[in-house]
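User: hey, got a sec? need SAM-dependent MTase RsmB/NOP-type domain-containing protein folded
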Amino acid sequence: MSPLPPLEVPSEVAAFFLNVYTETHWETLRQQLACPPTTTYFRVIVPLSYRPDLDFTSAVRERRNEILPELQSKIDKHCISRNWDTGQYKVLCHSMLDDVLYLPVLENFNIEKPEKEVMIDTSAGTAVLRGADIFAPGILAAESDTHVDNTVAIMVDMDKKCLRGRSKRFDGRKIHVGNGILKQSRQAIFSKKPSELSGDGVIMTDPIYKTCGIPQGMNDQLFLQNITSTLASALLEVGMDHKVLDMCASPGGKSIHIASMCRGFGCVIALDKNKYKIDRILKNAQIYQVEKKVRAYICDSTNLEGDSKPDEFKGLPGQGLASESFDRIMLDPPCTGLGQRPVFGTTSEVQKVNSFRTAQPAYQKRLMTQAVRLLKVGGIMVYSTCTLNPHENEEVIADCLSRYPNMQLIDPEVKIGGPGLLNYGLNAEDCERVQRFDPTTHPETVGFFIAKLCRTS
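Assistant: Yep! Here you go:
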């Protein structure tokens, strides 16, 4: 059994979800949300300049087959350097998504805890559970007699109470996530601000969950992405010349993926209300060499009314976007996030039961109104969230179908998830058309929901 404590939620939130799930299901779900998925997924990056003579599917397969030997070789070296069994970490190609490679996440609970402790925050702890080493800025504290090349126990500060630079053992609530080798001295780490630090702080030799991230030198070839997000973009069926709208684009992984599919005259319009997030999307578009196909704007997607000409989208955001402007729309709205994993303790998103009942669903329905208006007849929309709340998933889709008879759910050509939940507005047939990823039945990934819709008139 995992040593990680189950997700903590306020009593009113627990009561809310006990109306959705049985008590046994809910308790199992809380434990699963505290743990990382059982699989690490890589999406193969296909720059627009790579084999422009090929369609996206053919280019992906060729690129994947080129990358695979190098990736396996580097993962083998990673394992050997940590005395892991290389035979347990074979990279495999996904059978249904051509641009997805994956390898397992293995439990490693029976490890001895070294005497010396190094404290990290929950963000760094999450990265460790997903296969990362610890960068120097992520180290909160280390005991005064800790030195370079010491084997140390990595402890996560569960309540954000450990002060940076602390030299005595922290006695607050903490959890052991593995052991590693300290690579920088206390003096080097704590004599500078975190923003001034670089390089590895701790090499994780014995994490409680063993897997591998993207090897050094392959960051422009691979992208760590949950398979659910990769699937959502794939279900859009983006053609070479399609105009695509990503209404809530941050952090940008889906926009970048979609842009790589636009190998003709197509493009992606990425919207977000936050300037920093828009700048990040544009920067990533350059890194992954799809910048010619990505246009990103600071914009509130609930307020896109207007009749500006769709060519070049010159009116955005001042005049808005014209109705029926887009062949494809990705709507991955802000949500309560009760599907993200691993989570240490609790998150701010699950503190208020009102978010689950009314606030987020109401906002998502407003976004859906704009999405329907902007979608061309015959166009495809994919709606997705990283929450398991049916009021933000099945109920939002049911509301859309009720308000807009010209929208219909369609069967996805790739079906990996389970059916939707009954009793939240969708009939049994439509529940089979959506995809719900519950970590109790799909431990390989995060909690997620996907629906694919078409505008018929």
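Quick note: The domain at 226-455 is CATH 3.40.50.150 (Rossmann fold). Let me know if you need anything else on SAM-dependent MTase RsmB/NOP-type domain-containing protein.
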